[in-house]
Fold this sequence. Notes:
The chain is mainly beta. The chain has two helices and 17 strands. The chain has a 15-stranded antiparallel β-sheet that branches. It is globular.
Amino acid sequence: MSSCNIIFSLSLFITCVMVITASASNFYQDFHILFGDQRAQILDGGQLLTLSQDQTSGSGFISQNQYLFGRFDMQMKLAPGNTAGTVTTFYLSSSGYHHDEIDLEFLGNTSGNPYTLSTNIYTQGIGGREQQFHLWFDPSKDFHTYSVVWNVHRIIIFVDNSPIRVFNNLELLHVPFPKSQPMTIYASFWDGDSWATQGGRVKTDWSQAPFTASYGRYNINACLGSQQQGSSSTAYPYSYTDCVPTSTNSSNVDNSWRNLGLNAAGRNRLRWVQTKFMIYNYCTDRNKFPGGLPRECQHSKF
């Protein structure tokens, strides 16, 4: 097994980041199929998982464990061609009406037009915090790494180690923050024909089916949710010194996520991404919030 640290070429916020290697992941060990029957396939001895969708059903998988804080890296290669109406996902979610959730949804499009990466964060069952992007590459051409860092200070979403979104813990301003509900990792490929592409105006061309997306190397450095059973929902469930993270790569347990933030270079990179590639931001949508923008929108996103 091998892993290495690379210096991000644009002097990003992280001094070094872990490279996901083939030895770091095995879908047989860490996940199981959630729905879709044979439309979901674990291949290459557990190193690859494919999800397919046809007119009858989509497919999905779910992690064996629940986690409370951590870093979650997943390589994905999306379906090519005319994928209008399809939704490919990688997300974390707790259960119940007042659930927390960290969402990455890839909304398909007609041939030659880009996928939309739609991100959302739910706290205590309330979402509506969408930020959407057209990426700087075609996510169907090759595998790319999509990451979530979730600690007590903030949530950061990355694409190929570039930060695209930060949601800070602003509980002092009475903004709810996910901190007490363990979350499960989910991924799915399903039919969003009624809304996914141009608000549902462009429908799925089922003559192109089956559509197939691939999930490759991944790594999880996180605290198991079971370690914090019985914790109070009004205080941090554990001190970081009490949490011994689990990792899907036992030879490289990386704890840097616990206090990870953005330095000046990282903030500059985030500004670049949001200036060049963000196509929707709930924090500027006054039509959606006629009574005033959410409180977190009035605070620096960095």
